[in-house]
Amino acid sequence: MATWDLSQTKHHVLICNGGSCMRKGGEEVTVAIREAITNAGLDDYVHTTRTRCNGRCEDACVMIVYPEGIWYENVTPEDAQLLVEEHFQNGRPVKALMTHRFETNGFVRTIDTKPGILKSQKAKK
Among its keywords, does the record have Iron (predicted)? Predict the structure, then answer.
């Protein structure tokens, strides 16, 4: 086990390793993203964490990037290099994979993103 020094961290990447995302290559995405980060020399600046389900199973494999609050869908190992180069090196989120972004009053869906159901509505069923 390690205790990382996060003082230089600019991005925190949450990679879903819940059931649906694992069936869609979550482990492979995790490995590919981490390798691309290392190859780009960004280990001190981009911290990754495997998570359990993030609640957007239809979007599997899901990756979330903070502090921007960008949610990505259908991420594959082949997307790793593009995501690292564009988002972490060039500061440009990859719009083709983006489902949500955080703005002042909360998360905003991109135009083509399925809205999903409110948690309060699911509880009533």
Answer: yes
Edge-to-edge strand list for the sheet holding 11-16: 46-51, 11-16, 63-66, 70-72, 98-103, 106-109
Instruction: Give tens-digit pLDDT for 77-124.
Output: 999 999 999 999 999 999 999 999 999 999 999 878 877 877 777 655
Neighbouring C-beta atoms of residue 44, cutoff 10 Å: 14
Token pair recorded at residue 46: 């981009």
Token pair, residue 65, equals 């990037």
pTM for the predicted model, two decimal places: 0.90
List of domains in the chain: 11-124 (3.40.30.10)
* Largest distance between two CA atoms of the chain: 48
Count the helices and strands in the chain (H runs, E runs).
4, 6
Residue 36 has φ and ψ, to the nearest 5°, of: -65, -40
pLDDT value of position 124: 55
- How far apart CA 18 and CA 27 sit, in angstroms, is 10
